[in-house]
Design brief:
- With about 140 residues, the protein is of the alpha/beta class.
- It has a single domain, classed as Conserved hypothetical protein from pyrococcus furiosus pfu- 392566-001, ParB domain.
- The chain contains four helices and six strands, in the order ββαββαβαβα.
- The strands form two sheets. It has a four-stranded mixed β-sheet with strand order 1-5-3-4. It has a two-stranded parallel sheet with strand order 2-6.
- The protein is globular and about 50 Å long.
- The N and C termini lie far apart (about 35 Å).
Length: about 140
């Protein structure tokens, strides 16, 4: 993977409101704090003047919980639905989630993660599709 560089966790805006405790436990089990490259790089993209995380929130939180202040990242070049990401970032701003540290107290069991985050995202996507005339 080319174009990998490091970025301070505090400089990256999350685009997710919750972290699954089960997924975090798996990542923490496999993470080697003395080898930060044991975590896959985090994809980021600039959106509305901010560097947002497009994925990898659990890995980033694992790094933070293990005392790291920066992680390896790369510029996400995938074609993504930026309207969805704008909504997710707006939700984060409304909930005062501006850095990974703000997600430390939002680690929830898998069933709550499904209900609080995944179902909410699915409803948002369905509403966007309906509004766009693709329902």
């Amino acid at each position: 993977m080319s174009g990998i560089f490091t970025m301070k966790l505090e400089k990256m805006q999350p685009s997710q409101l919750f972290i699954s405790s089960a997924k975090l436990a798996r990542v923490m089990r496999d993470f080697e704090p003395l080898r930060p490259d044991s975590l896959a790089p985090i994809p980021v993209k600039e959106l509305c003047g901010k560097i947002i995380m497009t994925d990898g929130h659990t890995r980033a939180l694992a790094a933070l919980l293990n005392g790291l202040s920066e992680v390896r990242v790369f510029w996400d070049e995938d074609e993504l639905d930026w309207e969805e990401y704008e909504i997710c970032v707006q939700w984060c701003e409304e909930e005062r989630i501006h850095t990974m540290a703000d997600l430390k107290d939002r680690i929830v069991p898998p069933e709550d993660y499904q209900r609080l985050w995944l179902d909410r995202c699915e409803e948002m996507q369905e509403a966007l599709e309906a509004r766009r005339g693709r329902s």
